[in-house]
Design a protein that fits this description.
By secondary structure, this protein is α/β, with parallel strands linked by helices. It is built from 14 helices and 12 strands. The chain has helices at residues 6-9, 40-47, 51-55, 63-73, 86-97, 113-120, 138-143, 164-173, 195-198, 226-233, 243-254, 256-279, 301-310, 334-348; strands spanning 27-28, 80-83, 104-108, 125-129, 148-152, 177-181, 202-207, 220-223, 283-284, 291-295, 313-314, 327-330. A 7-stranded mixed β-sheet has the order 2-8-7-6-5-3-4, with helices on both faces. A 3-stranded antiparallel β-sheet has the order 9-10-12. The protein is globular, with a radius of gyration of 20 Å. It starts with 5 loop residues before the first helix and ends with a helix. The structure holds pyridoxal-5'-phosphate. Pyridoxal-5'-phosphate (PLP) binds at residues 85-87, 111, 152, 156, 181, 183, 207, 209, 215, 220. The site of pyridoxal-5'-phosphate (PLP) has 12 residues, from helix 5.
């Protein structure tokens, strides 16, 4: 007998973006982290955590965080399920919904973890290619009649957004569950939260990793009707959110002023960077996220990635269909963006 399931042996392990050791002098624009620090309230709350909070098991539903998120979003707590990052919610959704004979569908290119999680479930996968403008392929997705449909909105790595009307159209046509992964939604002009009220098959996912500068904390959540949430709780790890994350995360979501200030700084930098890159001859897709997808006017995207890396600037290159000629660049601080632009000017001329 083989030691591992064939589905696991066939799987190539998910390759996250490079994470150089803390303190390494690099400009890190490769994993869409927020370039600004989290709220000072978060740091203070973290300092105050004592042995007693750590000695005991955490609340199984991260109640403190759930209450705070509920107040901020004006959604009842029973509509919220908290996870160890939104990746944890994706895992629960896959476990509960996808499997042999139960298809998973999503447009591509998108978040690579969807493919990995579906493969672990041994679920058939339908990957529908986006067109060059990254319009959501509603009909092709619906026609696959999937048990689980995933739409990252804004999408990564394109940064593009489907309108709420188009998502509504998709929700109406699907019999299975529709996940709208809003990991970057705070940087966008609109969100689709209202769809969880209108459709009992829609789940919206949010995370503190990008907009709240807390990728290291690991906190995300799903919003859906209580009946759907109830099924997901059956497959979650008993104590999936640790006490530190639940407490500190509550302080983070409550500091909406801090989040909004950082988000607007990043949106301004995004406009500026988009214009500068366009002037330099790059094609830049219109981004609603904290990164931009770009195509160099000439030359090879991978060579440019390597050349930037040699000069201490990390961006993301995906060796994937539709992406081999492109780079994804996270929005940094103004200083970081300036160094990036100066370096690119030397490299592409
Ligand atoms: C970053 C990201 C996530 C993961 O978020 P975590 O909360 O850090 O697990 C999920 N979906 C997309 C599309 C992302 O880019």
């Amino acid at each position: 007998m083989k030691r591992f399931r064939a589905a696991i042996e066939a799987l190539s392990a998910y390759t996250p973006g490079e994470q150089p050791a803390l303190g390494t002098r690099v400009i890190k624009l490769n994993t869409n982290e927020n370039p600004y620090p989290p709220s000072p309230n978060v740091i203070e709350a973290l300092r105050k955590i004592g042995g007693e909070e750590l000695r005991r098991y955490p609340h199984p539903f991260a109640e403190e965080f759930r209450q705070s998120a509920s107040e901020i979003l004006r959604v009842e707590p029973s509509w919220i399920l908290v996870g160890n990052g939104s990746d944890d919610l994706l895992t629960m959704l896959m476990r509960a919904v996808a499997g042999p004979g139960r298809t998973v569908a999503y447009p591509v290119p998108t978040y690579v973890l969807y493919r990995t999680l579906a493969a672990i479930q041994e679920a058939p996968v339908v990957e529908v290619p986006f067109d060059e403008r990254y319009e959501l392929p509603v009909s092709a997705l619906a026609d696959a009649d999937p048990a689980l449909t995933l739409v990252a909105n804004p999408n990564s790595p394109s940064g593009t957004c489907a309108s709420t009307d188009r998502l509504t159209d998709l929700a109406v046509r699907l019999k299975g569950i529709l996940v709208i992964d809003e990991a970057y939604v705070e940087f966008a002009d609109a969100n689709a939260l209202e769809l969880v009220r209108k459709f009992d098959n829609v789940v919206v996912l949010r995370t503190l990793s990008k907009s709240h500068s807390l990728a290291g904390l690991r906190l995300g959540f799903g919003i859906a009707n209580p009946a759907l949430i109830h099924e997901l709780t059956k497959v979650k790890d008993s104590y999936n959110v640790d006490a530190v994350a639940a407490h500190v995360g509550a302080w983070a979501v409550r500091d909406t002023a801090h989040t909004l200030a950082n988000v607007s700084r990043i949106r301004e930098s995004r406009t500026k960077l988009t214009n500068q890159l366009t002037s330099l001859g790059f094609r830049v897709w219109p981004s609603q996220a904290n990164f931009v997808l770009v195509r160099p006017s000439e030359g090879n995207a991978r060579d440019l990635y390597e050349a930037l890396k040699q000069r201490g600037i990390l961006v993301r290159y995906f060796n994937e269909i539709g992406l081999k000629d492109k780079l994804r660049i996270s929005i940094g601080t103004d200083e970081e963006n300036t160094v990036l632009m100066n370096t690119l000017k030397e490299l592409v001329i």
